[in-house]
Amino acid sequence: MKTRRRPYAEQRPQDVGGGVWSVPVPIPGNPLGYTLVYAVESPKGPVLIDAGWNHPDAWEALSGGLGALGLDVSAVRGVVVTHFHPDHAGLAGQVREVSGAWIAMHEADAALVRMINEYEADAQADMQADMLRRAGADPAEAAQAVGERPVPPAQPDRVLRDGDLVDLPGRKLRALHTPGHTPGHICLHLEDADRLFTGDHVLPDITPHVGIYPYDRDDIDPLGDFLDSLDRVGDLGPLDALPAHEWIFPDVAARAVQIRHHHEEKLERLRALLAQRPQPLTIWEVASMMTWNRPWEDLAPVLKGMAAGEAAAHLRTLEARGLISRVTGVEPVRFHALDS
């Protein structure tokens, strides 16, 4: 089954076959519009794939949408969170409160949730502003680009690792660790129906944000991890994909190849950009020169911060491949191309 993305007002809960239902849950003030939450049938109650944003309208949509499909939110057995972002994990705690459901996510994202819950909001804002300054943003830009802190997600009861089977009686739902968008992002292979819940890892039309935070880290390579994860998804073959946004689509392997090609082209353009510059560039300068969905000067400050995170991830992958190098001992950090 395949549908095109429509405005949230036109979305409806639906039976997508094989004991799986989808419920669109709104994301207030976000151009994505909604998260597709899936419910998977089992003899001991449905298990949700993601839960949606923590907001009264979202809760009404989730609980009401399940009810329209003949499912009671109080009967939910568990919530598997594909990753810790608030449009996926936000309502998991409330589902647990009304149903007693367990919450599961990958151990890497569970560790991030612990850290977020322990971090003071003011300290987080100061850390973000300092990170932006170290990337090359001036103090005024840094102050404007600090985003509001969403309500921290609930701590999971269970952690998943690559290859683990989800506690879903009568079905076979296996976790596939696909880091990049977050360190603990997982896709979920419904092996008894040959379908793949892709979360944000593989979407039919857009590509997920892959960034480094803090921007100047040199001990991780999230984009490299993301590209490797695309290959793993491709190895599963032409499965039907049930993503968290946009629409259900066929042949996830073909789409994974397209996304990899998109990033390889972006990496080559960035390497060429640095090679043309006589002086090393800061992350902020690089981000301002890259192509986004609108001109750099038209991006809201928070979106500039996200763009810088994505620029940093691409720079880090080029660095890991030995194509560029960072200038050490300076702040903000700067990068230059190496001779071919």
From TrEMBL:
Q: Name one GO molecular function term.
A: hydrolase activity
Which keywords has UniProt assigned to this entry? Hydrolase
| Signal peptide stretch | none
- Name the coiled-coil region(s): none
Annotated CDD domains: TTHA1429-like_MBL-fold
| Renumbered residue ranges of the record's region Disordered | 140-160
Q: SMART domains this protein is in?
A: Lactamase_B
InterPro entries found in the cross-reference section: Metallo-B-lactamas, NDM-1-like, RibonucZ/Hydroxyglut_hydro, WH-like_DNA-bd_sf
Q: Which domain of life is it from?
A: Bacteria
Domain Metallo-beta-lactamase, which positions?
A: 34-245
The answer, when asked if Hydrolase is one of the entry's keywords, is yes
What the entry lists under PANTHER family is as follows: ACYL-COENZYME A THIOESTERASE MBLAC2, METALLO-BETA-LACTAMASE DOMAIN-CONTAINING
Q: What is this protein called?
A: Glyoxylase-like metal-dependent hydrolase (Beta-lactamase superfamily II)
Organism expressing this protein natively: Nonomuraea fuscirosea
